Amino acid sequence: MLRPVCFDVRKYGSDWMKNEVVPPIIKGEQTVVLSITEAFAGSDVAGLRTTAVLDASGENYIVNGTKKWITGGMYADWFVTAVRTGKPGAGGISMMLIPRSDAVQTKIMKSKYSSSAGTAYVTYENCVVPKKYLIGTENKGFQIIMSNFNHERWMITVVCIARVRMCTEETFKWSMQRKVFGKPLIEQPVIREKLAQMFAGVETCTQMLYDITYNMVSMGSQGAEVGARIALLKYQATRMNHLVADNAVQVFGGRGVTQTGMGRVVEVFSRMYKIPAVYGGSEEIMADLAVRTAIKGYPKQARL
Ligand SMILES: Cc1cc2nc3c(=O)[nH]c(=O)nc-3n(C[C@H](O)[C@H](O)[C@H](O)COP(=O)(O)OP(=O)(O)OC[C@H]3O[C@@H](n4cnc5c(N)ncnc54)[C@H](O)[C@@H]3O)c2cc1C
C-alpha cells in the first residue's frame, strides 16, 4: 500500500532511501505503512511511548514498543514508525524507516474495516535500527507526522465523497422505482426532503473539496490555514456520511439492512461509514483543530 506514507520518505528521507527504498514501493513490489498509533496514544500522538535508544556504539537505535490499528501492517515490508528519542511530548518524537524482521512482529486485528486491509497490532522487541534509517532530524518527527496528515486527510475525504455519492445515487434510483401505497416513493414529500438533504450534503462537500484542492495545487499543501480547512472538510464529510447513511437505510427499509439484493450498497455503507470519522484524525479532533486555528488568527481588538 502506497498511501501518502511514501510522502514522508520522499520529502524528508535521505538520498539512499529515495534511491533504494522508494522505487520498489512505487513499482508495487514492496509495501510501506504508517505506524504511529498506540494503545496509549491515539488522538494524542504526542503521548506515544515506543522508544528508540542509541546503543553503546552510538551507531544503532534499539526500538521497543507496540503500535495499534496499523493499516496494511500484516503485509508491510517497511514501517514508517514514530518513536520517542527524547523528552516527553511532541519535541521528543522521531520518525524511522524500519524494515520487517524477526524483531518486528505483526498480529491481525479484526475490525469492521476490510479484512484485506491487513490491520495489525505491531510489536517491536529490541529491534536494532541503524542510525541511517532515521527520517529527517532526531526529535523533529512530530512536524513530519503533521505535514503528512494534510495529504492523508484530503485522500480520506475524496474516498468518503465518492462512496456517499454512490449511496445517494442508489437511494434516488430506489425512490423512483419502489411503489408503496400505489405510487413511487419519490412522490412522498418526506422522501424528497430526505433526498434533498443527501444531494445538498454531497454537493457541498464536493465543492469544498474542489476549492481546497485548487488552493493546495496553487498555493501548497502545508501551513496552518490549509491544515484547518482540510480538517473542516474531513469533519463535514464524515458528518455528511452519517446523515446519508441514516437517510439511505430509511428509504430502503428492510433492504437497507440486508446484505444481498437491491439494498446491498447501502447496507455496506451504513456499516462502514463511521471508520473515516475515526482514523486520520477523528471528527472531534478535526473540529477542534479548525476552531483553534480560527481563534489563533482572531484579531485581538475585534469586537461586535
Ligand atoms: C480502521 C483503522 C485504521 C487505522 N489505520 C492507522 C494506520 O495506518 N496508522 C496509524 O498510525 N493509525 C491508524 N489508525 C488509528 C487511528 O488514527 C486512531 O484510531 C485515531 O487517531 C483515534 O485514536 P483512538 O482510537 O486511540 O481514540 P482516542 O484518542 O482514545 O479518542 C477516543 C474518542 O475521544 C475523542 N477525543 C479524543 N481527544 C479529544 C479531545 N481533545 N476533545 C474531544 N474529543 C476527543 C476522539 O475523537 C474519539 O472519538 C487506524 C484506526 C482505524 C480504526
UniProtKB/TrEMBL annotation:
Keyword Flavoprotein: yes
Entry keyword set: FAD, Flavoprotein, Oxidoreductase
Span of the signal peptide: none
Domain Acyl-CoA dehydrogenase/oxidase C-terminal: 139-292
Cofactor annotation: FAD
Tree of life domain: Eukaryota
UniProt-listed SUPFAM superfamilies: Acyl-CoA dehydrogenase C-terminal domain-like, Acyl-CoA dehydrogenase NM domain-like
Domain spans labelled Acyl-CoA oxidase/dehydrogenase middle: 35-122
Pfam families: Acyl-CoA_dh_1, Acyl-CoA_dh_M
Entry keyword annotation includes Transport: no
Family annotation (InterPro entries): Acyl-CoA_dehydrogenase, Acyl-CoA_Oxase/DH_mid-dom, Acyl-CoA_Oxase/DH_mid-dom_sf, AcylCo_DH-like_C, AcylCo_DH/oxidase_C, AcylCoA_DH/oxidase_NM_dom_sf
Family: Belongs to the acyl-CoA dehydrogenase family.
Name under which the protein is recorded: Acyl-CoA dehydrogenase
